[in-house]
Design goal:
Blueprint (H helix, E strand, L loop, with lengths): L8 E7 L7 H14 L4 E7 L11 H4 L3 E2 L5 E2 L2 H9 L8 E3 H14 L9 H19 L5 E6 L9 H14 L4 E8 L2 E2 L4 E2 L2 H12 L6 E6 L7 H9 L6 E5 L7 H7 L2 H8 L10 H11 L3 E9 L9 H13 L2 E9 L8 H5 L4 E4 L8 H13 L4 E4 L1 H13 L6 E3 L8 E5 L15 E9 L4 H6 L3 E8 L2 E2 L4 H6 L2 E6 L6 E6 L5 E4 L14 H28 L19
Parallel strand pairs: 1-6, 1-7, 2-5, 2-6, 7-10, 10-11, 12-13, 12-14, 14-15, 15-23, 16-17
Antiparallel strand pairs: 3-4, 8-9, 17-20, 18-19, 18-21, 21-22, 22-23
Helix pairs in contact: 1-3, 1-9, 4-5, 5-6, 12-18, 14-15
Length: 572
Amino acid sequence: MNNSSRPTKHIFVTGGVVSSLGKGVASASLGALLKARGLDVTILKFDPYINVDPGTMNPFQHGEVYVTDDGAETDLDLGHYERFLDLNMSGKNNATTGQIYEAVIQKERRGDYLGGTVQVIPHITNEIKQRIRRLAEDSSGYNVIITEIGGTVGDIESLPFLEAIRQFRLEEGRRNTIFIHLTLIPFIPSAGELKTKPTQHSVNKLREIGIQPDILLCRTAYPLPKTVKPKISLFCNVEQEAVIEARDVDSIYEIPLIFYEQGLDRLVCEMLELKADRPKLEGWTKVVGGIRDPKDEVTILIAGKYTDLQDSYKSIDEAFVHAGVANEARVDVKYVETDKLDAETAADVFSGAHGLLIPGGFGERGVPGKIEAIHYARANGIPFFGICLGLQAAVIELARHACGLEDANSMEFDLMTPHPVISLMPDQEDVVDMGGTMRLGAYPCRIKEGTKAFQAYGAPLISERHRHRYEVNNHYRKVLAEHGMVFCGLSPDDKLVEMIELTEHPWFVGVQFHPEFKSRAQRAHPLFREFVRAALSYKRLHETGRRRGRVDRGESQPSLPESASAPAGREA
Ligand code: GLN
């Protein structure tokens, strides 16, 4: 049904007690349920830090930088929104304190405030509200905008945002706005009890600044005993049916169904007087079923640099979950620090793995190990998927070990290399300032028919998102092609190499873009899907080979698939 003539309704999501409770996933899950009811929904994230965007932040500090079609470098929660809602976000779906102040200061410098004193209230709070309204006016008409306030209630930084949403309700009215607060009910082992006090305090903190939550989402490791909901309801002044249990789950994709079972979407629609269809949840049931009951499993090695931090490759991890469901398999992702990878250790590191993925990255640390890993995968017919820096490393590997271009390198790592197979484009070479020189956001790519890339996408023209500075150097296309590299994806003007693959290999694909940003829970990315399929074939071939080997030769040495005969080695 179409509600577009009605006013946009607003849901504000805040978090209390501790950080990392999963506000992003909770917002995305509620959004998914409302979308499944036929409503037009989008999500806006406010980040209270002062950086203008997370683009300049170290992944160790902030996790992955998520890139939207329009080239905005945003918070990784936008990835959850896209994956759960199957929608494209834009830079307008994320704003930081830095951006808000930047806009206000620019207006002040222009004299827009006519000599008035510029203050947090009303100038900063007005700017915050305007960002919400701008999104509401932006589209063909959203029925619902969910606004997630980053940080934890009680933080100094979040205050202007909380004040702004308090004012927002005053202006838009109770039927058009609701407040949802995500909190924690910790289990205290010595008392053997779940405790509600931190939630009471957190709600009190909100009420001090004039916000009474309408719904509480209670994160808990255990089911809430019968007595707990009435207690929370009484002390927090929230109706009992609006106290929702948000139990820890094995997979985040179970959360929409768990919320649905407790009537969260129905409650929200009632409170906001939203007329909507019953939710269509078959897609979600299928995803959850696929995750719970895989028919096979496969191990993928990821050789990266930020492997200690859980969130630094978030979109890649999730893309593997989606690709697993599409292949009825569980994808076990094994991270390996490339610092520790060399010719001696490679075989050990690869033992038990059925595919290698090299993710994006910046800087030289770990690159030699990546090249070593790629060489091993190429020589042994192990499926390989290179993303951004992963493609660049694959080009360097082939140049050095097959084309005889010793010391071939990327200009990012060696300005003096005799063979800059990865370099800046001629029009970039004079740029001294590194900021703003990256190729960011969606670019079209034309795919050659008859290639593995074409087989995956099933389309001649695609669009993918970029975030990098360097490109394949076109001077080396010829020699690389002579040694089996196919430039299967090019920019429509043929000037930029967007995808490569190898002819003499079961599945060896590199992409200059970041496909992981476009994988969706109910629509796996075609390249991840095909990569996992190739890894499964590799595994099956190998297992058969191993079994046959035992019978035929009386030994248990694995035999390689025929197509995996070693390509020209590094001596070539
Ligand atoms: N560092 C490389 C470049 O700037 C790759 C970037 C990436 O992997 N995102 O081109």
